[in-house]
Amino acid sequence: MGRSRLVALWGAFLAVHAVTAIVGWVYPSQPMGDVVLVYEPWSASALSGGPIVGVTETWVYPQLALLPMLLAKILSLPLVAALGASSAYLVAWAAMVVVLDAVAFGVLLGRAPSQPRRAAAWFWCGALLLLGPIGLYRIDAVTVPIAVIGGLWISRRPAVGAALLAIGAWIKIWPGALVLAAFVAFRARVRILIAAASVTAAVVVTLLLLGADTEILGFLTEQTGRGLQIESVAATPFLWLAVGGAARIEYSFEILTFQIAATGADAVGAVLTPLMLLLVLAIAVLGAVKAARGADHHRLFPPLALALVTALIVANKVGSPQFQTWLLAPVILWLVLDRTRARVPAVLVLVLCALTCLVYPLAYDGLLRAELLPVLVLTLRNALLIVLLVVGVRALARVPAHRTPTTRE
Predict the structure, then answer these.
(1) 402 in any annotated domain
(2) Residue 385 belongs to domain spanning
(3) pLDDT at 111
(4) To 5 degrees, how large is the angle CA 354–CA 357–CA 361?
(5) At 71, phi and psi to the nearest 5?
(6) 236 lies in some domain
(7) What is the band of 403 on the pLDDT scale with cuts at 50, 70, 90?
(8) Dihedrals phi, psi of 57, to nearest 5 degrees
């Protein structure tokens, strides 16, 4: 029976990834657009001796994000003659992400997975299927398996787990929230801090040797110039103004996103980053108080991680649909460590994935025209993100201050 369950899970994993990869070629609104329109040119430029993003010019991503882009480019070279450059890169990208996910899936399941780990595996498959190609064809997809492995290892191998999470943060910032959650929740704080700091130091020294200086933190400064992106939670009221003709949706050729143009939109965008920092600080302080009072780290870490990650989404002025992938790792870890209390967050994230796919790519053209139905669906999605944040903070606040028996593997 155990072997058949394992075979079923791996079969579901392969089927979901195959479907997700294929529908990227079928769905409207170019759900694979970033991969071929920006990732491939960036990697081609770096390999051909041209400008190197993050090194010779400022970039919107942390510098390690270029590595999977370069790897996909190298993997695509044998396929170019048969498929063409763009198609070959897409196939190589999808194959790379599937392999990374398979490694993390294998770490999650092992040879004889417990019921909580099987539940987490089914959740991962269901979430990816509902989210669609955006869960595969974005740089964020690379960070999910890294965060899953790092989060699973952080308890027994704190230095290795923290190092992996720090690497993830140098690809896309959000895994840094898991580093913070682990630092607060676990006793091995010194090892976690040293590991994360060592990765950061190694990246910075390497970049300096490559000739980068002012570009090293460019991924932070570049964000300050962004406007209020239409999918962000804070943009929701302005979308309803756009439905009534009182606001506009405009494309930014500099940032390559659709943004709100309306009175007050810039002011709202300006306060979001400070608000995000305050939210993260408040959640971390609440977690630190619980840890100081002896809370069990198995109970504390998952809701703390989810609350921190959700805060990064809710108070973000960007709000890209692939941000929903950030929620997968905290919920997977919660299901493994404390499955009973993870059920509500898991269901909410599954619904969020489905609603996000309905908005992008399925109804995105209508959203850009500020049509009623896609704006309504996006409003529901954004409202549920706020609900998820409340659920995470509430679960964090209800973690017992003293060690008590908890649901574990």
Answers:
(1) no
(2) 2-397
(3) 85
(4) 170
(5) -60, -45
(6) yes
(7) low
(8) -150, 150
pTM of the complete model: 0.96
Would you say residue 138 lies in a domain? yes
Q: How far is CA 353 from CA 131, 150, 291, 303, 347, in A?
A: 4, 23, 31, 19, 10
Measured in degrees and rounded to the nearest 5, phi and psi for residue 272 equal: -70, -45
Query: What is the token pair recorded at 362?
Result: 């399925």
Pull the structure tokens for residue 73.
């480019």
Between the alpha carbon of residue 188 and those of residues 9, 142, 195, 212, the distances in Å are: 33, 27, 11, 33
Instruction: Quote the mean pLDDT of the chain.
Output: 94
More confident residue, 365 or 223: 365
pLDDT in the model for residue 252: 82
pLDDT tens readout for residues 71-102: 999 999 999 999 999 999 999 999 999 999 99
Cα–Cα distance measured from residue 36 to residue 15, given in angstroms and rounded to the nearest whole number: 24
Q: What digits encode the pLDDT tens for the residues 300-328?
A: 999 999 999 999 999 999 999 999 999 99
Identify whether 407 is part of a domain: no
Instruction: Report pLDDT for 223.
Output: 67
Residues in the chain: 409
pLDDT category of residue 405 using cuts at 50, 70 and 90? very low
Q: Phi/psi of residue 286, each to 5°? A: -60, -45
SS3 assignment for the chain:
CHHHHHHHHHHHHHHHHHHHHHHCCCCCCCCCHHHHHHHHHHHHHHHCCCCCECCCECCCCCHHHHHHHHHHHHHHHHHHHHHCHHHHHHHHHHHHHHHHHHHHHHHHHCCCCCHHHHHHHHHHHHHHHHHHHHHCCCCHHHHHHHHHHHHHHCCCCHHHHHHHHHHHHCCCCCHHHHHHHHHHHCCCHHHHHHHHHHHHHHHHHHHHHHCCCCCCCHHHHHHHHCCCECCCHHHHHHHHHHHCCCCEEEEECCCCEEEEECCCHHHHHHHHHHHHHHHHHHHHHHHHHHHHCCCCHHHHHHHHHHHHHHHHHHCCCCCCHHHHHHHHHHHHHHHHHHHHHHHHHHHHHHHHHHHHHHHHHHCHHHHHCCCHHHHHHHHHHHHHHHHHHHHHHHHHHCCCCCCCCCCCC
**Per-residue model confidence (pLDDT) at position 224:** 65
Q: What is the number of structural domains in the chain?
A: 1
